[in-house]
Amino acid sequence: MADPTDPWRHTTTAVHTAHIALDSDDDAAAQGHLAAFGDALYNIASATTGPHRAELRAAAMAFNRARRSATRADHQAATALRKAAKELAYASNEPGGLAIALLFVTVHLARAAAKWHEQRGHEQQAAAAEEAFRHLQAGYQQVAAPVLADLARRAPRATTASRFEQDVRAALPDHADRILADPTWTALTTTLAHAETAGHNPRRLLAEVGTQRELDSAERPAEVLNWRITAQPNRRTQAAHSRSTISGTSARSATPHPPATPVATRPEERGRHR
């Protein structure tokens, strides 16, 4: 059985890939991703519940004016984002922190889109993307603030937090001081504790998510890491699913198949064959 959180996770990954495309020199691929992102925003808004849904809908409408430009679009480059957005349209539930992690990356992609258009002299598209960014940021802040506060309240004990601090210094030495000074650091310790329970090695995980995109420009690097880690799959659940799939396949293989039974021919078919 597929994990119901997969559509949210796949869309988060695809939006992250779109951000990378905007940083590349391939304008056609970037334009293709922006067009796909415009479609994805409508599906994200539709799959979202809560009062911030209105901001997401407003963002989708605003970005619709930013998705088209004179730049030729390579739509094939954004196939993964289009596919993930379609999956999200049929998602059965909104998975809490993972939905916020998706919203977080949409905020940053909308801002990057505004800059991308501005650099190319697309004034109307840049203004539309900036408007979408403001709506997405408002929606994100509305839903993320209480969740981050709750994570901070449930922080692990001091010895565990100290161990995570050492992990940060070992995994991301160039960013450690800024991460630890970030007001979101306490919330991040809770997220790291959850990730460890889910089967991740915190130090290895920090090194992995810390290099997905540079952290130098992030105002709150701990907040960035918090949502990147939230978007990681539960390794224990994956392993259990893998074991059950293998054992189920083995059981089916071990069961002897009954001999094939010939299908009876209907009278009218017998008549046709004569």
Contiguous uncertain segments of 5+ residues: 257-274
Q: How many beta strands in the DSSP annotation?
A: 0
Largest sheet: none
Shape field: globular
> Helix/strand-derived class?
mainly alpha
**Radius of gyration based on Cα positions:** 24 Å
What series of H and E elements makes up the topology? HHHHHHHHHHHHH
Strand proportion: under 5%
Number of H- or I-type helical stretches: 13
| Count of all domains | 2
Describe the 3D structure.
The protein folds into two domains: 1-142, no CATH class; 154-234, no CATH class. The chain is 70% helix and 0% strand. It has 13 helices and no strands. α6 crosses α9. Residues 257-274 have low confidence and may be disordered.
Summarize the structure.
With 274 residues, the protein is mainly alpha-helical. It has helices spanning 6-22, 27-47, 53-63, 79-89, 97-119, 123-153, 158-171, 176-181, 185-197, 202-210, 221-230, 235-254, 267-273.
